[in-house]
Structure formats: C-alpha cells, structure tokens
Amino acid sequence: MLKRFFNYCKESYEELAHKTTWPTRSELFNSAIVVLTASLLIAVVVFVMDFAFQHLMEFIYPN
C-alpha cells in the first residue's frame, strides 16, 4: 500500500516536471488580463441589472 502511494507520487512528479507544458509569463499575463476584464464586465452588468430591477420594483410596489 505504501509502495503504491510513493509510486503514485513519483509518477505525478515526473508528469508535472517533464510532460506538462507550462505557459510563459506573457501568456499567463494575457490570460489574467482577459479574466480580470471579463470579471469586471460581468460585475458591471449584474450591478446595472440589479439597479434597474430595484427601481422597477420600487415603481411597481411603492412604499
């Protein structure tokens, strides 16, 4: 059982160290910018929809 665990760890390390293609710093930076931009855009859209529906509900159900 313990031998299988160590074998698994060794194979995992070998795969990560030698078979995995890691992104370059430039690719990573560009991907981060895309994710940040998309997140901000979605946040703005949700904010605008929330604001609009809040005012619509206040118009329909005044206090």
Q: How many alpha or pi helices?
A: 2
**Average pLDDT score:** 96
Q: Which regions are unreliable across 5 or more consecutive residues at pLDDT < 50?
A: none
From the structure provided, what is the oligomeric state, counting identical versus distinct chains?
Answer: single chain
Strand content range:
under 5%
Q: What is the 3D shape?
A: elongated
The biggest sheet, with number of strands, parallel, antiparallel or mixed sense and barrel status, is:
none
Terminal-residue CA separation: 68 Å
Note the run of SSEs as H and E.
HH
Number of strands: 0
What does the radius of gyration come to?
24 Å
Look at the helices and sheets and give the structural class.
mainly alpha
Kindly state the percentage of residues in helix. over 70%
